[in-house]
Hints:
Layout: H1 3-10, H2 15-37, E1 42-44, E2 51-53, E3 55-58, H3 67-75, E4 80-82, H4 91-102, E5 111-116, H5 121-135, E6 140-145, H6 151-154, H7 157-168, E7 172-179, H8 183-191, E8 198-202, H9 211-223, E9 226-230, H10 244-261, H11 265-274, E10 279-284, H12 289-300, H13 307-319, H14 329-334, H15 342-353, H16 358-366, H17 372-377, H18 382-387, H19 394-405
Parallel strand pairs: 3-4, 3-10, 4-5, 5-6, 6-7, 7-8, 8-9, 9-10
Antiparallel strand pairs: 1-2
Amino acid sequence: MTRREFFKLSGVAGMGSIVTPMGKLAHAANLSEQRKQSMVPRRPFGKTGQTVSILGLGGSQDLMSKQLLLRQAIKLGVTYWDTANSYDGGNSEKAIGKYLMRFPEDRKSIFLVTKSSSSNPKYLTQDLARSLERLKTDYIDMYFVHHVYRVKDDLIPEVKAWAEQAKASGQIRFFGFSTHSNMAQCMLDASKLGWIDGIMASYNYRLMNSDEMKKAVGACETAGIGLTAMKTQARFSSYFYSDHDKKDAESQRLADHFMAQGFTPEQAKLKAVWDNPAIASICSEMPNMTILQANVDASVDRTTLSYEDKRHLERYARRTAHGYCAGCGSICESALRGAMPISDIMRCLMYANAYEKPDLAADLFQKMGSNMRQRVLGLDFSQAEQRCPQKMPIAKLMKQAAEKFALS
């Protein structure tokens, strides 16, 4: 276009209207780039062909009163949302459903995960139908069997057939399981099956450096299984009883080190997990805007942990090991020939002592059997204590749980 044609088309008075939008477009482009840089990064989720936010929203909390938190999570790029049919008595799923009813356009950007506590195909069908209704959605992105302890017991051929049928019907896109106990062995066994899409496992700075866990993560990565880390803060199962001061001193030393680096110990623990590219996402319970923003900031910050940073975490983990159950239940429980679910009871103590969820802890404990208190008090845990790699005071902790959670 010649200069004469340009002025003939636009007119002199129209020059401002042409130049101004171009300036606005440039400003908008800058804002768009800034917004992109402040969004949670994404990673591939195994062989599924999907990418997910490396920070996920944990739904084991009261989400019904936190609709603004859900909205803010989306805006910040936290689009991996985890829940379960059992969380908050089913209200967690209902809260997400309430959100999706109000903002249906957000559904396509959310990688939605929920779980069934059963591995029986009949109950899986019932649980999935109920979850779809509660969540107000036509499909689940990732459907988990919750709390797998032994793969050979829970992921039987009938479950594989059920998962394939559910995928074919469009009700779920991917299938897998979560595990809190014997994680490494469960992951290794699952990597050989050939039909597991994703696994959510306890994985943190206390667990990640063991040879067993390294081997398990590597096997899953080779098999193309997407991995989600949970319990990444590695909170204590016990209160250390007589050595509170020692625990506090160790925690203070850790905090001082990382605050000097410009981030909190909690952010450092997240970074330690993200340091492994095989971990697609971290599932984090973020009960308020402050924690949500802090975790998002940690994910956006490209600063990686130094060798010395990792050494601080390793030393802290070693010095406080006797307060943390590593979930290797097959070791201690074998001493009792399977007579007591020690790792499950330790998880109850963790929820009560570290997460301040005594009702959840008591509910889980009571589901283990009405006579659990008598069983605990009637057992000798000395052999289990001798086998515990963490050197935990198992007998004392089992007695504490029995007295704290058992029905009177």
